[in-house]
Model the fold of this input.
Amino acid sequence: MTMKVALFGTSADPPTAGHQAIIRWLSEHFDYVAVWAANNPFKSHQTPLEHRVAMLHLLITDINSSKHNIGLEQELSSLRTLETLEKAKERWGEAEFTLVIGSDLLAQLPHWYRIEDLLQQVQLLVVQRPGYAIDESSLLFVQNLGGEVTVANFIGPDVSSTAYRESGDKEALTPLVVDYIHKEHLYKCLSENLTC
Done:
């Protein structure tokens, strides 16, 4: 039987309880969940990648998955998802790969590097994020390119990295990530209530 691998890259700036819920859900539906922190060329990042990787590691180790099928696979990280997929194929061979993206990224897909090539090689799973409706025209675009796209029957909690960076909502984060942020003095403006 072909191994089913979920590929889930995230900016993780910082990783939230929402990311954790998605990863936990993926672990119940796939044989293996490969997670990594990435630099998204369409976003500006507030925190250096090494800190985002460390926080993501803490987030993953805090998930009690009975399958033990979640791994931080930082070597998959690339600015181009097609390169990530090539690395995944080197690692897992003939596995069936599903690229997991949030509904907020759906509209960016037409601008991705060699998107047609990518969609021929990987299935797409869109996770609905509160506040980001599924863009039907983007779904149609993916399907017209021959891509296989599924909308997950799961909606993540209403938390986001952006909301944390803008308002310091600690409910968005897990305790281990909050502790790391304080220890490393990240997002300093928030923790000290300064205007930056």
The chain has one domain: 4-161. The longest strand covers residues 4-10. The domain at 4-161 is CATH 3.40.50.620 (Rossmann fold). The CA atoms of residues 14 and 161 lie 6 Å apart.
